[in-house]
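Exercise 7. Predict the structure of Tyrosine specific protein phosphatases domain-containing protein from viral metagenome.
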Amino acid sequence: MPDQKKKKSPKRTRRTDHKMTVADYIRKHSPIKAGLRISDEDKPLAKYNKVMDRMYLGNYQAAKDRDLFKDKKITAVLNCTRDIPNHFAHNKDIEYMRIPVEDSLKEKDFELMYQYMPCIVEFIHKHANIEKNNILVHCWAGRQRSAISIAAYLVAKHGLNPHDACKLILEKRPEAFHFGHSLNFDQALTKFYKTHAKKAK
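Solution. The predicted structure, encoded as tokens:
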């Protein structure tokens, strides 16, 4: 009986998580799915969380917490809102930058966030690399605008892709991106990664 040539099986291509949209990837890694129990998703778990060395992500309460500024030696604040006051702007040792973007889910605010991202990255980078100083990045809830701002910094200066940057933030602050349920500025981050951060590598 003649030898029969074995048919080569077609190569299988494995679908990786990173082929998901960033929003879907973060939903998959929601801390609630992982077992985090909370009674009310609209109530803050914490005023702030440390995301990495010299960097804190917080909400409107953190922005006016005098003890936090003193204990953590906050010397720079990225205020990602139109209307929350820069509470300690009178202090010459604290530098503020305001990003006047609304969390409205409107196209104009997605685009505005994208346009601000290069400035956001440079401001965070400047202050996150000053020894013994710390930066607070905040919005109203510390979940969307401030979180995506830090994600932009991570993809631009730490070489992470948007998926891994957002996952790192979610691990450090479980309520970020509304506990992983929604990533309101994902298209701004993805666009920034493709047009700025990825090319810079």
